[in-house]
Amino acid sequence: MAHDREILREVWEGKLPVCFKLNPDEVVELQQPDPIYLMVPRLSYFPLVMDKVKKHFLKYITNDKQDQEMWLEYNGQPMKWHFPIGVLYDILVDTDNETLPWIVIVHYDKFPETQVYRFSNKEMVESYFMACLKESDVLKHRGQIVTSMQKRDHSQLWLGLQNDKFDQFWAVNRKLMEPSGDNEYFKYIPFRCYIDDSYKQKLVKPVTDEGKRKTLLDLLKETFPDKSSVKVKTHGMIPPLETPLQWMSEHLSYPDNFLHFSVI
């Protein structure tokens, strides 16, 4: 199926203005540090964009904390680094009342062990990303595409995401976005529906047994059978309920090849 490249690029180029502030209780200097402002990709992960932030605040904290793991908080809630940035924003921020930039508090002390996974380096983020990619490929193609790729393909996907390079990433990712063999559709649609900071996922096919295309409305009915109506947000927008699932999976998935929906 031919992809609408302009939509893919527009999704890829989605950015959020973020104001990072160091927790004032951790500042050792007399003067509070200035915040640092960054435009961060919605599709990325916070550990991949934090080098400048860490460098900016390092001299304002005690030496014994400088090697400790940094963590982020919004509105009193620790943020899970393994959720994509855009997903975190859609989950945590009430966009009806929020004004940009997104104000995020940086911590070096009192890591919230019970709420957030530790990450010691970017290789851990890469491992998590590749695990998600393999899971989505199992759902779509029974895992046939990822396992047939060479290591350089895996590296190209990761480096494309890490360095925010659309063409580098999609040169490989397009293979994952094509139905396998003679099939017109994926086997299942990889998706996660977030309620607060946990999510639900189910095995949902893109077509009915009679071959009729399923829509977002069908997915929500199957995922939340006890609810009469559910609205979701993805990439900061509320998609029409009549949008076909196959099309959504091909065009609106995050780099891990999952659709990420925030229930509103």
UniProtKB/TrEMBL annotation:
Residues 123-178 form the Autophagy protein ATG5 alpha-helical bundle region domain. May play an important role in the apoptotic process, possibly within the modified cytoskeleton. Its expression is a relatively late event in the apoptotic process, occurring downstream of caspase activity. Plays a crucial role in IFN-gamma-induced autophagic cell death by interacting with FADD. Involved in autophagic vesicle formation. It comes from Sitophilus oryzae. InterPro entries: Atg5 (IPR007239), ATG5_HBR (IPR048940), Atg5_HR (IPR042526), ATG5_UblA (IPR048939), Atg5_UblA_dom_sf (IPR042527), ATG5_UblB (IPR048318). This is Autophagy protein 5. The keyword Acetylation applies. One of its GO terms (cellular component) is autophagosome. Its main location: cytoplasm. The lineage of its organism: Eukaryota, Metazoa, Ecdysozoa, Arthropoda, Hexapoda. The keyword Membrane applies. Keywords: Acetylation, Apoptosis, Autophagy, Cytoplasm, Immunity, Isopeptide bond, Membrane, Ubl conjugation. Belongs to the ATG5 family. GO terms for biological process: apoptotic process; autophagosome assembly; autophagy of mitochondrion; cellular response to nitrogen starvation; immune system process; negative regulation of programmed cell death; piecemeal microautophagy of the nucleus. Conjugated with ATG12. It is found in: Cytoplasm; Preautophagosomal structure membrane. It is a peripheral membrane protein. GO terms for molecular function: Atg8-family ligase activity. Residues 11-108 form the Autophagy protein ATG5 UblA domain. The gene is LOC115876194. It comes from the Eukaryota.
